[in-house]
Amino acid sequence: MRPIAFEAANDGGRALENRDMQQEHSPAFVPPQNRGTWLVVGLIFLGLFAAVTGIWFQWGQTRRCLSFYGPATARQISSAPRVELWLLKPGSGVGRLVAAERRDISAASGLVHLRRGLVEDDNFSWPDSLSNGSESVAPHRPLPAEAWNVALVFFTTEKQGAESVEPTILAIDFDERGSLTVVGRPGRIGLGRIGRGLEKWIGVTKAGVGL
After folding, report:
1. What total number of domains does the chain contain?
2. What is the rounded distance in angstroms from the CA atom of residue 190 to the CA atom of residue 173?
3. Rounded to an integer, what distance in angstroms lies between the CA atom of residue 37 and that of residue 155?
4. Is 42 inside a domain boundary?
5. Per-residue pLDDT averaged across 140-164, rounded?
6. Is 30 within a domain?
7. What is the mean pLDDT of residues 189-204?
């Protein structure tokens, strides 16, 4: 009887040894709550990557406009609560313009899309100095005051200290090529592919507000 007991003891030892070896070679057990934590972390990083990609893409579409307008002016164009349409005529001084007529067009149809279009690079014709990726804007030859037809004016409620921020005035010339300039800033840019649609939109808007 003793040999049988001995063999049984050996078999039990080998069974324990085999089980220990299986445990050593088995994949590590990850509690469910840890898996959930890693999933959340992964989603956070995915969201951050998407946000950074979106910001980079947006910058690539608007960098020339930001250089031409300046960041503050671009922000006014995009978000100013009050927008007016002015009909321009030469003033009494040389090179001066005055608003012959003006109307509030803050609620005009299509204004939201126009705001977006005014800060997208591909909508304009840029000076040759920008075709090589340069961030500077080379000024075109100045136009006479009578060349400018209308202006879009963006009023903000922001203040600089106790002073109100000056409105942004975009003067527009609808000649064969078309030009746009920011009153008070140097240089102008060609209207490019936005020109025809902008002229049509202004014509419809003028009729709608009685200009």
Report:
1. 1
2. 9
3. 48
4. no
5. 83
6. no
7. 94
Structure tokens belonging to residue 137: 């804007």
Helices 32-69/71-79 angle, 10° precision:
110
| Within a domain: 159 | yes
CB under 8 Å to 61, separation ≥6 — which residues?
120, 121, 122
Q: Which structural domain range is residue 124 located in?
A: 55-209
- Looking at residue 41, its amino acid is V
CA atoms of 208 and 203, how far apart (whole Å): 9
pLDDT tens-digit readout, 134-150: 444 545 677 888 889 99
Using alpha carbons only, give the angle 171, 172, 175 rounded to the nearest 5 degrees: 150
> Is 105 within a domain?
yes
Q: What does pTM read for this prediction?
A: 0.68
Angle at 65 between CA 188 and CA 175, to 5 degrees: 35
Q: Give the sheet arrangement for strand 82-90, strand by strand.
A: 97-104, 82-90, 150-155, 168-173, 179-182, 189-190
> What is the tens place of the pLDDT at every residue in 73-103?
999 999 999 999 999 988 877 778 889 999 9
